[in-house]
Structure formats: structure tokens, C-alpha cells
Amino acid sequence: MKIVVTGGGTGGHIYPALAIAGYFADVENAEILYIGTERGLESDIVPRSGFAFRTIEVSGLKRSLSLDTVKTFWRLGKGLVQAGRILKEFQPDVVIGCGGYVVAPVAFMAKMRGIPTYIHEMDVLPGLTNRSLSRIADRIGVSFEGAVKYFSHVKDKVVVAGNPRASEVVKVSPDDIRKVKQEFGLDLTKKTVVVVSGSRGAKPINDATLGMLESVAKQKNFQLIYITGQIHYNDVVRQIQEKGYGPQQGIFTQPFVYNILPLLAGTDILVSRAGATTIAEVTALGIPGIYIPSPYVTNNHQEHNARWLADEGAGIMIKESDLTPDLLYDTISSLIESPSKLQEMKKRSRGLGIPEALSNIHQAVMDLLK
Predict the structure, then answer these.
(1) Tell me, what DSSP letter sits at residue 298?
(2) Which top EC class is named for this enzyme in its record (predicted)?
(3) Is 302 labelled a binding residue?
(4) DSSP code of 370?
(5) Is pLDDT above 70 for 196?
(6) pLDDT at 165
(7) Do the beta carbons of residue 364 and residue 143 sit within 8 Å?
(8) How far apart are CA 272 and CA 226, in angstroms?
(9) Contacts within 8 Å (CB) and 24+ apart, 359-364
(10) How many helices (H) and strands (E) in the chain?
């Protein structure tokens, strides 16, 4: 079996695409070719994975008419030709697209050549590329039930498969959880709250967290591990040390955690942004979340993710514009001090998770090929 996998621009598209590629390589002994762009993150990430990698020239469409718009259409034309040439040479049995503008020319040329196409939407609110491709794709996988309504015009094609990243969390063992907590010096008997500010950090989340540390230091109900992001780490640690806070008060800091799944699996409450991958992980684990969606992402899709979780009783959304130290601390405390509410939120979170996502995607693709 030969499979073209495509997707790019952000890790939220690339890592799930690689998870799918790896699954098919293992289960079907498939030959994988990944198509991306030279300028996207995939040009660095994918070659490290060991999969064959080819590039096409294409860029995202700007919202306003300008010289860049003309260049975009020129690149799209070039990308279509390049994608067609690659498909003709590789002769795949199926094309799998995981989001990002690079998918459009590949999926379109696959359709022109009669190659079955599966596209996967990671967020609750579908991106422009997947919405545009929904009519020509043969099957559409979605990560969350909340995304189905946006594909009502092609509902017969839609499969609620889950996010591929969710399948990774089921591999975490209790021993993995214990080891990572011991590594960070955490108390194995206390409830744990994890604040994640993102790989590069988010100043509003950092400011709110720093502002509530006095309250955290005074209480004994939970410990806090604060992942600041590399950029802000030194400044945050300096401010914490100036206040005299540290592990003795149940306050721990890390710039970044590369293997975060064992830590998440041992978390009672997560405070974070509301990216699709994060949501897939925490719902597969059944973790209640306090979500502060980034207002700076395309189509404001993080707010749609967070609002859906809040409406389902699996989390609480705080808009960045409303975020204060007092509000963040009070929200955490109200959950910690109400075990029944926290347990119900865990139950609802787990009910939304789909840890068998990769198996579901595999089945959907194989059914398509039949």
C-alpha cells in the first residue's frame, strides 16, 4: 500500500499527520510519502521522522486584495502542477490530508486523478482549507463531535474519529506518572494543578499566574507546577524567587516539558490554551480544564474549542480579556474544594475523549479503499 500524507504550517497539523503515517506504516506496512512546503515547520519536523518528504510551492490566501493575492494564486497554480507530478510518480492508493493550505492542491489533484482522499479536521471549528475541500473529499474525519454540524452539507462523508494524538495518551502507565512527578519533586499524595503557558509562553497567562502565587502559597489543598515557556522562564523564576516562593509552598516551575503526557495523566486540573491537540490529550485522559483561548489564532478557533468543552461540562473557559489573578485562583479553588464537581467534570471530559482515534482513522480509510 502507498499513502500520501499531507498537512503543514503548525505542529497541530503535522504531529497528528505523522501519527497517522506511523500507524499505517506499522499496521499495513504502508510506504509513506509526506508532501509539505519548504517554508512550513514540516520541512524540519518530517525528515526527522524518517518518512520520505517532497515539497510543493503554495501559500495561504490573504484576507485582503493585494499584490500578495496575485502571488498566492501564482503559487497555487505552480503547486497544483507540482502536486500532480508527484502523485503521478508515486501512484498512491489514498491521500490523507491533515489541515493547512498545502493540503488543497494535493487533494484537488488527487481528485482529478481518481485517487481516494481522506481529510481530517483537528478543531471544533473547521479551517478554511477543509471547509473548501469538503465537497471533493471522499471521507472527512473530525476530532470532536462538535465539528459535525459544520459539515452538515456533506454529512454522509463525516466520521467522528478523534484526534490522532489522543491515541498516544493510552500508553502512559501509573509508573510513568510516578516517575515524572518524582523527577519534578512533586508530592505524590497532593492534588496537582498544571499551568501551561505554551512552548513560547503567553504573557497574559504568566501575569495572572504570577499574580495569584501569594494565594497559592497560603493554601494546602493543591500543588502547582507552572510551565512558563522558554522565553519567559528566567524572568518568571526571578520574580518567584524575589517573593520567596518555591517547592516549600507547593510551587514548582519548568520552562518546558518535552514528554508532557505522563505529567498530564497525573494532573487534577489543567490551565492552558485551547489548541486541538491539547484538548484531544486532556479529554482522552479525562482531565478537567480551565481554558484561556488565544485570541490571536485564525478564525478564533481556540475559543470555539473551549466554548464547546464548557458547554459539555468538561471545562471552564476564561477569555483572555477577562483573565485576572483573582479570577484564575478562585476558579481553581472552587474546583479543588468541590470534589463532586471535579469528579463530574472528569467524567464529562473523558466522555468526550476518543483514545482509539488512530484505529478509527485506519478503519475509515480502509473502508474508503474498499
Answers:
(1) G
(2) transferase
(3) yes
(4) -
(5) yes
(6) 87
(7) no
(8) 11
(9) 359/167, 360/141, 360/159, 360/160, 360/161, 360/162, 361/20, 361/23, 361/118, 361/120, 361/141, 361/161, 361/162, 361/164, 362/23, 362/24, 362/27, 362/28, 364/118, 364/139, 364/141, 364/159, 364/161
(10) 15, 13
Set of cell numbers at residue 250: 507547593
Contact assessment for residue 309 and residue 291, using Cβ atoms and an 8 Å cutoff: yes
Nearest-CA neighbor of 103 among 68, 132, 78? Answer: 132
CA distance 64 to 215: 47
Burial (CB < 10 A; 0-12, 13-18, 19+), residue 313, is middle
| Cβ proximity of 20 and 164 under 8 Å | yes
- A 10 A CB-CB count for 141 gives 29
| 7 annotated as belonging to a binding site for a ligand | no
Whose CA is closest to 129, among 175, 79, 187?
79
Give the side-chain half-sphere CA count within 13 A for 80: 10
Tell me the three cell numbers of residue 1. 500500500
Q: Any residues with CB less than 8 A from the CB of 95 and at least 6 apart, and which?
A: 3, 4, 5, 6, 87, 106, 107, 110, 115, 116, 117, 118
Residue 63 has pLDDT above 80, yes or no: no
Q: Which of 26-30, 242-246, 256-260, 329-333 has the lowest mean pLDDT?
A: 256-260
Segment (H or E) for 5: strand 2-6
Question: What's the CA gap between 161 and 149, in Å, rounded?
Answer: 15
DSSP states of 62-121 as a string?
A: PSS-SHHHHHHHHHHHHHHHHHHHHHHHH--SEEEE-SSTTHHHHHHHHHHTT--EEEEE
Ligand-binding site membership of 12 (annotated) = yes
Q: Is the dihedral of CA 358, 359, 365, 369 positive or negative?
A: positive
| Percentage of the residues of the chain whose pLDDT score is greater than 90 | 82
Give the cell for residue 222: 493543591
